[in-house]
Design goal:
This protein has about 450 residues and is α+β, with helices and mostly antiparallel strands. The protein has 11 helices and 16 strands. The chain folds into 2 domains: about 5-225, no CATH class; about 240-440, Nucleotidyltransferase, domain 5, CATH 3.30.420. It is globular, with a radius of gyration of 28 Å. Bound molecules: zinc ion.
Length: about 450
Amino acid sequence: MSEKVLVEHKRVFKFRIYPTKEQESFLTQNCDASTIAYNSALGYLKDYHEPLTKQWKEHCEKEGVEMKYHEYLKMVDKPKLTAYDAKKWFNNDFKKKEGNEWFNEIITAGTANSILDLDKAFKNFFRGAGYPKFKQVRRFPKAFRVERNIKTDTGAKLHIKDRRLELPKFKKIFKNYLIKTKVSKLDTRVGDKYYSLEDGVTKSFTVSATSTGKWFVAINVTYLLPEVKPKTFNKDNSIGIDAGLEDLLVLDNGTKIKNAKHLKKQEKRLRINSKRLSRKKLGSKNWKKQVKINARIHEKIANRRSDFAHKATHELAYNDSYNAFMMEDLDLKEMGTKKGYRGKSVADAGLGEIRRQIEYKAGWAGKTVIKVDRYFPSSKTCNCCGYVVDKMPVKKRHWICPKCGTRLDRDINAAINVKNKGLEEAKSKQATENKKKKALKKA
Ligand SMILES: [Zn+2]
């Protein structure tokens, strides 16, 4: 009997929360505490290491020797203080100083996680990289992260019930300790099955606030599930996808997925308001007002784009008619820098993000993504007879094949070519694998 292979699937459930005024001030305190903890721990380590690194460099120069900093520490019999030592110092000394008592009131794991973020930075520092940098306390987005495997006074538990969220310490502090949320569904599809949040292990959660005063929670969940076997595919249940000039995505069956509606309108609004901001006196009352307005427009545009991309890619990946997706392996950087050539619309559409989403969502659904060579002339080849034209001006929406006379829609034709190319590549890959298998059997 063969054992089932379990694979880790990671998901993030992110949703908006609506804390009360009191809860909000507590959350803000936690975000600030997290940054202050990070900075103080960094300061503590810097105070210790700075004079020592100086001595180490002087020693190397004077003696004409080459040695690593950690080797020098060993020689002079000095401990190699790390983020873990800083965490101890923070809990045993820093918190006990006068005026720092409030750190005992907040979610302890948040500050601990933030200090341990320094660990990686200091590992690099010991290898010769520069000192990690201090963070600004008032900067947005504010956030604090709690990892569940770190033991805390309250166990850092997280409860969601009837769209209400309970965070650690809340029950202790607030009479109405549940936070209102805007969570619609807490499940995820892997292969053909749905899994709820509770089916997985909550690894960590992050509470964050945007500059426009909105609060979010992101929960990182890991599922250990049987491997999803890729679904078989053929010509009929594969789909070729091309990035259109005017449309976001064009499918080989003729479907055109348009860009997010009203985006242009918002962008125009942003341009007008950016001009307004530049005319106001820096730091003045009116300037501050305008900054807020602009931040809100920025946020609206980003949200629209993101919502739209997620919806479009979800619909594609979980459409039962498609088991494989063929896409061009485009170099988006190259496209973005070529003036006049798709540049702006590519940046707008966040095409790279869309392609990334199709890839991982298709993977979750047990479907295949085939990326075809980006130098393959998908727009210039006639899908009926294979004739390749020399030039294809960007503005040309339709063209007539000089060889077979077919009238072609530029983008749909490209999508069909991408699909055929993808199927061809999949076939040759399969043939090579079969050959390998046969050779192995013979041997
Ligand atoms: Zn033709």
